[in-house]
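Treating backbone geometry as a discrete language has practical consequences that deserve illustration. No coordinates are needed to read the tokens, only the vocabulary itself. For completeness, the protein is quoted in full, as a sequence line and a line of structure tokens:
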Amino acid sequence: MSGDEILGREKIGKLLFKFAMPMTISLVLSAVYNMVDQIFIGQGVGYIGNSATNVIFPLMQLTLAFGFMFGDGAASYMNLCMGEGNYDAAKNSLAAGITASIISGIALSILLPLFMRPLCRVFGATESIMPYALDYGYIICLATFIGLFDAVTMNLIRADGSPGFAMLGLVAGCVTNLIGDPVAIFYLDMGVKGAAWATVLGQAVNAVMNIYYFKYCTKSVKLDKAAFKNSFKFIGKISRLGFSSFIGQIGFVIVLFTQNNLLVNYGAMSKYGAEIPMAALGVTMKFFTVLFVAVIGVSAGAQPIFSYNYGAKNYDRVLKTLKLVLIAAFIILSFATLWFQLAPDSIINLFGSGNELYNEFSRKCLRIFLSLIIFDACELAGSIFFQAIGKPVQATALIMTRQIILQVPLMYIFSRLYGVEGLLYAGPVDSFAVGTMAMILLWLEIKKMRRS
């Protein structure tokens, strides 16, 4: 069967597994990549080191906003042009993505270190955290151009039809980081600086593999000097296509900024102090992200199945696919909820032992902040589903409601009323409200398809 026939006729379960598995593995590896530093820093430096990485984490996410904009935009434009048979434009858009990543990466690598100290203060660094945050942040931010290049080129490699190679690059980078962290932190006694250098080395290995791909392994589009000469004309076009990804990532940075500052401010007024709440919630969210992106991977893997069959009016196949995605999401998040409620210490101990106050607040983060994540299944699957069937208004409404419209105000309200522990209740309220909203929107769409 051809690609179209597979999407329209293959068994849904088999088809979903084929599309979702490489996407899920890639996303989980990316999340593990970010979590590895926290584990080794927690073991080698302590929770104060983890607080420092949580200060720098929003800066890393800010640079990823540009990576998503240029990577998603260039990949989308490239595939659109290939579908139209315009391979010259596809080649130019690929070159534009690479060019934009290099220019913006170099600019950020120069600018971020210049403003490192005030940026650390903005994102919640206290006097005791600041030295560690500067040690980690200077190294990470000076190498921003490497991480941004990786983010863009991985999308372009997938767009060229090689998701396996993109995943292989991530694996190589992750393994390098896994080996580098203990060597640099424990053997060379470099502390957070060692963790930063291990991260940069992993990114560099990934970048080298991606460069090798574009030089020797491209399938559909071959780069040449002419493509790069014409690439500047396409940067605006790819940026417009990827702008929604940029906005979504900026929203995430705003949430991190709000969360870090409230944790520090209200933590200082509590028995926990300023550093413990930020370290505890930071590592909690890093760990949860691994399970979170597994749900996104299953949903994103279903995107071409949703799109093709909705366009072909095969609504029965659309509904069957949506049902399987939701079942998988509920299973993953139900397992996570049971783990967080019944065995939180098994997670806390991964990131190093702290004092009893640190352990106490970490348990509350897992048991309270993440208590209703099962409702996130509908929001995560729903936002990707609506985007896939050409209804961006519903998709954007779910994303913006969760990140900006609801979560940020809830954090302010609950922390003002109940202190630093009150902020934790913003998590389940947000999950329940946005999950309910997603259920209603999905029910209305399902009802409409059944009528058709």
Remarks:
- Residues 47-84 form the longest helix (38 residues).
- The radius of gyration is 22 Å.
- The chain has a mean pLDDT of 84.
- The chain has two domains: 1-21+268-452, 45-241.
